[in-house]
Amino acid sequence: MTHIPSTTITSDGPRPIPLIGMGTVTVTEGSDVVKAAVVEAIKAGYRHFDTASFYGTEIPVGEAVAEALRAGSVKSRAEVFITTKLWCNSTERHLVLPALKKSLKNLGLDYVDLYLIHWPLKINSDNIKIPVPKELVTTIDIKPVWEAMEECQNLGLTKSIGVSNFSSQKIEHILSFAKIPPAVNQVEMNPLWQQKELNEFCKQNHILLTAYSPLASAGNSWGNNSVIQCDVLQDIAKSKGKTTAQISLRWLYEQGVGFIVKSFNKERMKQNLDIFDWALTQEDLNKISQIPQRKLVYLLGFVVTEPNDVTAEIDSKL
Q1: Is position 6 within any domain?
Q2: Which residues bind substrate (predicted)?
């Protein structure tokens, strides 16, 4: 079993977060498949699992953790790090705590380790129907929402709080009034969308940047194969006897960020962890730094109609 390095996040005092997390978002697989994949991932060595109320996978993730505890794959709840997220239809002060309590009920847990605001958006509809018409989407009033997030942590329902898909400008605004600063900012990041400025900003403010879509969500309806098919990454992989995916994940690790990688295939789960006993050379890093940059996944386009208009409202740099 692979030992996954961790770093500390500080919104609840120094707290370890495994740098590799397993993603659980899927639109094709049922709950039984998700549960079985998480059980296998725990056996392989994964200890950080990323879900969200929007994903509809909180229940199978919780069931898998319970099964792993019964089987002795993990000895205590504290060995597993669970991240979930506040969906955009609950980004109002009075809705945050009930939303977290519903997520905890789905997970069958007393607390989560990390609770994130999923997007800096408010969707003015109770129904989760994708894509959301842009006229139902507005920016959120972040101050009361963040105060409610802080209340969730103070109540012990989450150990840490953070954000997802937030620009440095939006985080700076939170920092101007927060009693508890964000511990994590989860955004799209990979060698073709390197987020250098945002990563530097987060490091300066002791916020862990965590990458989703580290492989451009290849194999998902909203993703593509651009990272896997990148010539620069393929050449480096060939020279090292590694997969292109491993090169991308190792590059992320060397940037000092965490990342969420999703595969329900046992062998690829193991391959995605096999990135710690070798390193990229300076020449490799130089080549990767020169890859033309472009946003690949653009999940906002999956969530709302006419995403360019919405992006102009929330920040074009995400």
Answers
A1: no
A2: 118
Token digits of residue 276: 């710690």
Q: What is the pLDDT of residues 167-224, one digit of tens each?
A: 999 999 999 999 999 999 999 999 999 999 999 999 999 999 999 989 875 555 555 6
Task: Record the pTM.
Answer: 0.92
Residue 48 marked in a binding site:
no
Number of Cβ within a 10 Å radius of residue 273: 21
Name the domain count of the chain: 1
Hey, which residues are catalytic here? 55
- Give 259-286 pLDDT, tens digit per residue: 999 889 999 999 999 999 999 999 999 9
Q: How far apart are CA 247 and CA 80, in angstroms?
A: 26
| Within a domain: 138 | yes
Residue 11 falls inside a structural domain: no
Parent domain of 194 = 16-314
Q: In this structure, what CATH number is given to the domain that contains residue 63?
A: 3.20.20.100
Question: Does 3 reside within a domain?
Answer: no
> What's the pLDDT at 12?
63
DSSP annotation of 133: P
